[in-house]
TrEMBL record:
It comes from the Bacteria. The chain crosses the membrane at residues 6-25, 59-79, 85-105. Keywords: Membrane, Transmembrane, Transmembrane helix. The keyword Transmembrane applies. This is Peptidoglycan/LPS O-acetylase OafA/YrhL.
Amino acid sequence: MKQLMPFIILIVFLILIAVFILALYNYRLKKRIINSGPLDENSLKFLAQLSSGNDAVKWGLILLTAGIGFVVMEFIPYSAEDSPVPYGVEMIFVAAGFLLYYLFLRSQKDKTTL
């Protein structure tokens, strides 16, 4: 685990940089579309899709389930140096977070089509 920690920190740092760059370019794209002139129906749909507030829900659910996974790992006995159990438990909880987000989006989509 100690050998993987620098690698994991590097990956997390690169992901944070990528998220910041994506947010910056989404802002610039929205600003350029708005400043281009009158907006038609297609551009309004595109802007609404870019501005969906579901990102906070997604990351909230994923981080919540990841945190629950860390808490559960505290109570599971395993060998810290040789066991792949922590990775499996954490991946299961993160996958559960993505599944909950998918179900949330699906229920939101069902509500808007009614």
